[in-house]
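Page 42, continued from yesterday. The earlier attempt failed because a stray header line got pasted into the input along with the sequence. Redoing it now with the clean sequence only.
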Amino acid sequence: AENGRAFVWYTTELEELTNCERIYVFREGRAVTRLEDEAIETGRILQASFGGDHV
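This time it went through. C-alpha cells are written below.
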C-alpha cells in the first residue's frame, strides 16, 4: 500500500493472516472488524468471525 497498491487476499488459514499488516474480517457480506499490526491475533480473528463488533 506504500506505493498506492493494495492486495486482496481471501483465506481461511489463520496462520497466513498473522503475516498481514491490516486485515478486515467479513461476515454475512459486511466488514465487521478491522485489525492492524499487533492486534492481528488468531483469537481476535475468530471472535470477529463468529460475533465480534461491527466496524
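Notes: Residues 1-55 form one domain.
Reminder to self: strip header lines before submitting.
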